[in-house]
Design brief:
Layout: H1 28-34, H2 39-48, H3 53-70, H4 76-83, H5 93-108, H6 110-135, H7 142-171, H8 197-205, H9 208-224, H10 229-257
Helix pairs in contact: 2-7, 2-9, 3-6, 3-7, 4-5, 6-7, 6-10, 7-9, 8-10, 9-10
Length: 258
């Protein structure tokens, strides 16, 4: 009896092609533009392939550009005289004038100094977040961490800088202590001038723009670092809390010395 019809047939199958490598959908400039409206899509793209050069250059141009516009409106003499009021008995008028003159000369070089410091600052900030991501169990590398941080800070930084430039043009000459209060975006702008220095230092940090940044960082590290919301939040908030404590300590020390 022929059972050939009942035997299963084993026909050779065509080899299955390996899945094609995922490629990023957005270019560097598109990522900066989409960071305002579609941050999740940007961070998904960064997880595939990080980009940071254009974002870093953009941050440098934004920071130096805003500083170049703001500095001419800074009333250096009044700022220095206010801070030296407690030492008026120790310093002569000529000595105070010399301090003001040196400060004004130093201010001219601030944009150049800022252009050098900004990349170093971002490298250190990314290193801190990279360490935090490792501590909470993420496998994200340094370049993805740096790219995520830059694109998270970008939208709040742009909006804050544009508003500051617009407001200071209307304000004219202001002291250094008045600049943070031009925008009523933080709790410190509503505190009494007699509030303790440590409280003012912390309150100025609790701004709409910083909250916006923290939210974007959590979203970014959750996606890029493949973390839960709780772990991504921990990686972001621990450095921020340490920074707040440091600012409060410096403010307290300043209050004790003044």
């Amino acid at each position: 009896m022929d059972n050939s019809n009942n035997r299963p047939s084993y026909e050779p199958q065509a080899p299955v092609d390996p899945p094609s490598e995922v490629t990023p959908r957005l270019g560097s400039l598109q990522r900066l533009l989409n960071a305002f409206s579609s941050p999740g899509k940007v961070f998904e793209d960064i997880r595939v392939k990080p980009t940071w050069v254009l974002a870093l250059v953009g941050m440098m141009i934004l920071t130096v550009g805003a500083q170049t516009i703001v500095l001419p409106h800074l009333d250096q003499e009044t700022t220095i005289r206010q801070r030296m009021a407690s030492r008026s008995d120790e310093l002569s008028e000529e000595q105070i004038d010399q301090v003001v003159e040196r400060a004004e000369k130093f201010t001219r070089f601030m944009p150049v100094i800022t252009a050098v410091v900004v990349p170093i600052m971002w490298a250190l900030l990314a290193a801190i977040f990279f360490l935090m991501l490792k501590l909470v169990g993420s496998e994200a590398d340094y370049q993805r961490t740096l790219s995520t941080a830059l694109h998270a800070y970008w939208p709040p930084a742009v909006v804050a800088s544009v508003l500051m430039v617009a407001l200071i043009q209307r304000a004219g000459k202001v002291t250094e202590d008045e600049i943070p209060n031009l925008m009523k975006s933080h709790i410190g702008a509503f505190l009494s001038p007699d509030a303790p220095s440590w409280l003012s230092s912390v309150a100025t940090t609790l701004s709409v723009f910083n909250v916006w940044t923290v939210v974007l960082l959590v979203i970014g590290f959750k996606i890029v670092g493949r973390l839960s919301t709780a772990r991504a939040t921990t990686a972001v908030l621990v450095p921020w809390v340490v920074w707040l404590i440091g600012k409060a300590g410096l403010g307290l020390l300043q209050g004790m010395l003044s």
